[in-house]
Amino acid sequence: MSLRHSLPILLLQLYILSGEPAAAKVPALIVFGDSTVDTGNNNYISTVIKSDFAPYGRDLQLGSGGGGDQPTGRFSNGRLAIDFISEAFGLPLLVPPYLDPNAKMSSLVTGACFASAGAGYDNATSDLFSVLPLSKELDYFKEYAAKLRSFQGDDKAEETLSEALFIVSMGSNDFLENYYAVPRGHAAQYAAASDYAAYLLGVAESFVRALHALGARKVDLNGLPPMGCLPMERRAVDGACTEEYNAVAQGFNAGLRALVERLDGELDGGARVVYGDVYGPVADVLADPAAYGFEDVRAGCCGTTGRFEMGYMCNQASPLTCADAGKYAFWDAIHPTEHLHRVIAERKMNTTLYVFL
Question: Would you report the helix, strand and coil content of the chain in percent, each value rounded to 5?
Fold first, then answer.
């Protein structure tokens, strides 16, 4: 494994000349999206899309920071990219789920996750699994903002929200679980995936504008991964990626880049909107696994084959769950391992999010 890829996420940009972590120009991380960024909200709603059981979280070790070898509701063996990003900005090592009844404003003031595993831009996608639709994630954020004002006072709360980094990451479920599976809602109205993508981009634009109206000024709008290369989407015969899905992801990402550029120029009040590239770092890992310390990028660590198990099918009864998840790019049939999440976070910090340091 090359030295460059063995370095921890706290790289050059994250240290000032004194060697200390960067000053807190970002006082909080506010997160919306699906299972790639859900830190446990689905634990507290009635849905089958959960991961609050072993072996999820089996490698979550935070030392003196708390936590360790326990399921938290994250769809991974450990931390997510947003957790590493939080750490990189000098914030807590774990971003708390907003719906956790034990979460106090004293902890939520530096970060809150509103994401829900199984969610999508299309409300019909969220309805498939009875998870939080994007509109409900926004409603919870409004509730959070009101609590923040009570906790910090109006002026300080406005400052916190204007300096906070808002991360939005979703879209894969809209295509894989809705459009290409059993089309529902808007997905059923479009014969071409590109037309459905245009609809989703419209929802994304409306959502970012709504966040801006509520005080957000720093937004990281994330693209799709090479979703045709997820273990579940690889061809059963030879394990090859489903290139049609990858092409759709690339087309959506191109549209998202254009949207980000337009929003970045149009939103006032010193707003900055950036594009979060997920496709690039994942594709690089798939192309040259050894350079990033991976041995298997085709199957998930958890399960009998690692090709179809996730959620309740990835459990303690899975006899062939791998011994070392760090060698795998994927934890289950869809979700990255902590190792891949770290790679994604490192790349984003070094190519995009450093502008907020």
Answer: 45, 10, 45
Contact 346, 278 (CB under 8 A): no
Hunting for tokens 């609050």 — which residue is that?
A: 52
> In angstroms, what CA-CA distances link 255 with 122, 197, 198, 205, 252?
17, 8, 8, 11, 5
CATH, residue 30: 3.40.50
pLDDT in tens, 97-147: 999 999 999 999 999 999 999 999 999 999 999 999 999 999 999 999 999
| DSSP H helical ranges for 117-153 | 123-128, 134-152
Let me know if residue 285 belongs to a domain.
Answer: no
CA pseudo-torsion sign 41, 46, 48, 51: positive
DSSP letters, 258-290, are: HHHHHHHHH--TT-EEEEE--HHHHHHHHH-GG
Residue 318 lies in a domain: no
CA separation for the pair 229, 347 (Å, rounded): 19
pLDDT digits (tens, 9 = 90+) for 201-258: 999 999 999 999 999 999 999 999 999 999 999 987 688 999 999 999 999 999 999 9
Residue whose structure tokens are 């090359």: 2
What's the rounded mean pLDDT across residues 295-322? Answer: 69
Closest CA to 109 of 81, 86, 131: 86
Is the CA virtual torsion 229, 30, 70, 341 positive or negative?
positive
> What letter does residue 179 receive in the DSSP assignment?
I
Which uninterrupted H or E stretch holds 113? Answer: strand 111-113
Residues taking part in catalysis: 35, 332, 335
Number of folded domains that form the chain: 1
